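Box 3.1 A note on notation
Throughout this textbook, protein chains are presented in two layers. The first layer is the amino acid sequence; the second is a token string describing backbone geometry. Keep the layers aligned when reading.
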Amino acid sequence: DPIAGVPEVAARGQGGLLDVALDPRFGENRLVYLSYAEAGEGGNGTAVARGRLGEDLTSLSDVEVIFRQQPKEDSTAHFGSRLVFDGEGHLFVTLGERSDARFRVQAQDLNSHLGKIVRINPDGSVPQDNPFVGQEGALPEIWSYGNRNVQAASINPQTGVLWEIEHGPRGGDELNIVEPGANYGWPVVSLG
């Protein structure tokens, strides 16, 4: 049965409920994180909300949006999105570049979330050791950029480093070891 309390989801095209992750301390705090396509001014975009799962597993309470991709664009494709916690409790959120040629160039723009991987704290605040904190013209939550549409991500259990897979535009998906502040080239460079 559906769980009550889930935020309103813009389910069109590739948009919908995108990922679900449990807080690393779920046994203590029962927090669940959801990434989803959210409608808003200018179109839609990937958002992340968290809420507390009831003991009876039928509802979320105390639901709050902790991240919203900006800008919102009128597209039904390439939302990303994977949610991955690292060993220090930071949350990585992968964000697609929204596919359309008029949007995808923003993957190279540090003042846009499109085509990025962001790293936030569980409450949505920005870790002060993120690579672009304090850099003028750059959103501080950005961890990497030039990403196309990351739809698989995981922390390497041996090294603690984030790995991701993004769809190649003509086949030939990419496997990347994600480094802080790194540019993965899309749409300027692609080996798809």
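Helices lie at 26-29, 101-104. The chain has a mean pLDDT of 95.
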